[in-house]
Amino acid sequence: MVPTTSSTPQSPVSSGQAHHSAHPGPEGVDPDNFHRIYAGEPSRVGGDAGGQARGSAGGQARDGAGDPGIKPSAPWTTAKVPAPWAIGRPQRAIAELAARDFFEGPVLDIGCGTGENAILLAYRGLEVVGVDLVPKAIEMANANAARAVTANAVAGERAMRIAPAFHVGSALDLRTCTGGRTFRTLLDCAVLHVFSDADRERYRKSVTEVAEPGARLVVLVFSEHETRPGGPRRMSVRDIERTLGPRWSLVRVQPVRYEHISHDGGARSWLAVLRHRVG
Would you put residue 119 in left (φ > 0), alpha (ψ -120 to 50) or beta? Predict the structure, then answer.
């Protein structure tokens, strides 16, 4: 059993991309409820459901002005952004990594949500596969990718070499929903922290099965320093290591803000990079 995080487990209210918990039940996550959020219907999850995303960390605009590697005119998402974690553009922490050419393809975006991170990586010439448990999220991700391609063509800009491929599937059974293929980089933007201890063990097995030898796993989770109410379970750096070891080695970790519309300035989080151990 994976040790419990250092803070009291909380329900996934406004939990970033906790909608893609990828499995019914852990820590009270309800995929059907998150489907309703994407559809703009009433739900029990906090935030501005059915409304527009407010400015996120630093009061930045929805179009991502000022973010590294994000053009202000980039058509990241459809006009309606009902889910509190759907800020309408890639996460700043992920965009900063992408701007440094950190990601290597093929990339698997685990819990891709409405696809903004995956679309950003595809713009940079990478092959990207996005997986999310919620059908409505995948529907929106495909619409966003098509919209981005069309907008680029109209503007006369260079199109994506390969558009992202989005699939409905579970983060706890990635081998099934990806057809058994493997990936050089795996991206988890606010998924791991929603799982129970038992499901964290299943998650570790799942990501390991689809990792190429020496692959990188990029994980963004709420940290124990985020003390405001709401959101998923908090994780310390030690929690991350205990959850993913012994098949993954922690390469680096840094404090970042996870941008969403329910915590002003973003939620205090960890951005960790791990390397798959061969053998």
Answer: alpha
H-type helices in the chain, by residue range?
Answer: 31-38, 92-99, 116-123, 135-155, 174-177, 197-209, 237-244
Do the beta carbons of residue 126 and residue 186 sit within 8 Å? no
Spatial CB neighbours of 144, under 8 Å, sequence gap ≥ 6: 75, 76, 77, 78, 114, 115, 116, 119
Q: What is the DSSP letter of 54?
A: P
Compute the distance between CA of residue 176 and CA of residue 173 in angstroms, rounded to an integer.
6
Query: What are the tens digits of pLDDT across the range 213-243?
Result: 999 999 999 999 999 888 889 999 999 999 9
Q: What per-residue confidence (pLDDT) applies to 278?
A: 81
249 C-beta neighbours (distance < 10 Å), count: 13
Residue 184 above 50 pLDDT?
Answer: yes
